[in-house]
Every structure is written in structure tokens, then in C-alpha cells.
Amino acid sequence: MRVTASVSTPLQFAKSPDGGRLNSEIRRLSQPTVWLTFSPDPRTGIHNFTPSVVDEFQQILGEMKQWSGETQGINPSSPGYAVIQSSDPTYFSQGGDLSFFLDCIRRRDARTLHRYSMQCLNVMLQWSTGFVDDVHTISLVQGRALGGGFEMAISSDYVIAEEHSDFAFPEIMFGLFPCTGAMGLITSRCNAFVAERMMTRKRRPYSAQELFELGLVDEICPTGEGEIAVERHIAEHARRRKSRMKIQQSRHRHSALSREEGVRIVDDWVETAMELDADELRSLEMLIMMQRGGLLPEAPKQVA
């Protein structure tokens, strides 16, 4: 079952003209918590990072940063926790917008593809490092996380995954690789060799248990109990919040993500994308067709 917080207050952040796919609210748990829920694209049913939802993420996270800076230290009830969750029962996220990738490649529009990729990088950096001093971020994964969705999931300070969840980087199937921080994010928790192996492995997705053993997932909970696990973690973290936040800040100083390296990866990714050969483009087209049909990748089924 899912837990419904006793009190929640919608946050009045700007939304995109089509109404937006991000819902933001403050939940009154043991501690006030910003709770972000993002939904599949209503036009396609695909739970991916379209350019419009990336814009929405960037705008909301920027406003959150400004709002947090204005209230922290002034208002003692300011939220010190932020959660990212999917509304979809099957996917945390299916990753990047493959149809958009293919369209840019066919039109030889490297500039637009680069701009999109930089916006994705900015969102990941905002979420993973933009709130280090004041906010403890949490990812709640309740399904499959692919590509950019995998990166988003592990960019939080604490990652909770329901036991049926799994994770994969499918980009190598069509000649690409993760473009918004996978190497840095995984290396900050494991090492570069593990990151390389995960990005080039095609055999099958990684289970939540496998990622827990690698240190990429912090907690596994039974299916349907993710929100309970989040509430429990926040209550425990808050008992020694000051010391835990200092430790969090130290961790970020010792394993800081490099924006310079992120930009280099984006440059390399766009260059590689524009050079995909005919066989790789056919693989990309096939993945798009299967994704639209809900067939790829086959998602883990939740247990009732």
C-alpha cells in the first residue's frame, strides 16, 4: 500500500504551458519535506525526459534553490528534505527522449541535441549538488529506471528502492552511452571500472539487490512500502540532523561532481550521436517502436 501524508501543501512553482508533468508539494511528515512527483508524457504514455519536462525540472529546481536559500536559517520549519518519485507504477523513468534524439540526428541538428543534453546535465547537477548545505535529497524508486532515469535516481543523497525495482543503461544497444553524469555518479559511490562495466553491459538490468551490494542503492524495502521507508528514513535522519548534514557536506567535497567533465561528456555524446551508423540507427528506431508499444524494455511486475 502507499502512505498518504496527513497534510500536504502544494508549492506554487511555475508550470509549463501544457500544465506540466511535475507535481510539487510540502508533505508534513516528521519533518517538512518537499515532495516532487513526475508523470509520463500524456501524449505518448512514455515516461521519458522530453525537452519540455527537462525545462520544467530546471525551472522548478531553480525556484526551489532560490526559495530554500531565502527561508533556511530564517524559518525553522523550512523543509530540510526533498523527495523525487514517479507517479507511474511501472517505471521510475524510461530515460531520454529517443524520438527526439533520432529526429535531431536525421536533421543533422547537433546544436539542438547539445542544448537538450546540457539542460539534462544542469538538472542533474542542480538536484545532486544544488542543495548540499541545507537539504537532504531522497530518490524513491518503485519500478524500472533506465538511462537518464537511472542517473536521476542515483543522484540523490539517499536512494530507496522497492524490491522489485531494477536499473539499466540501454544506450550501448544503439551505439551511445549515458550523457548526464553516470560515470561521475557511480564513481562517487563505487569506482570507474564498475561504472564502465555497468554502461557497457547488455545482458540484463541490475536488480535493486545488486545495486545495494554495490553501494548505489542505500535501502531496499518491500514492494508497496516505499513511502513508509521514506518517512522512516527522514525521522531517523532528523534525530541527528546537524551532524548528518555536516557529514553530507564533507562527502560532497570529497566526491564532488565535475561540471567541466560533465560538459566534456555531453560534447563527446553529441559527437558520437551524430556519427551513428546505419545499423545503430536501425537499432534506435527499433527501440523507439518497442518503447511506444510498451514492449521495451520489459518492466518488472509489481507484486500485489
From TrEMBL:
<dbReference type="InterPro" id="IPR018376">
    <property type="entry name" value="Enoyl-CoA_hyd/isom_CS"/>
</dbReference>
<protein>
    <submittedName>
        <fullName>Enoyl-CoA hydratase-related protein</fullName>
    </submittedName>
</protein>
<dbReference type="Pfam" id="PF00378">
    <property type="entry name" value="ECH_1"/>
</dbReference>
<dbReference type="InterPro" id="IPR001753">
    <property type="entry name" value="Enoyl-CoA_hydra/iso"/>
</dbReference>
<dbReference type="InterPro" id="IPR029045">
    <property type="entry name" value="ClpP/crotonase-like_dom_sf"/>
</dbReference>
<comment type="similarity">
    <text>Belongs to the enoyl-CoA hydratase/isomerase family.</text>
</comment>
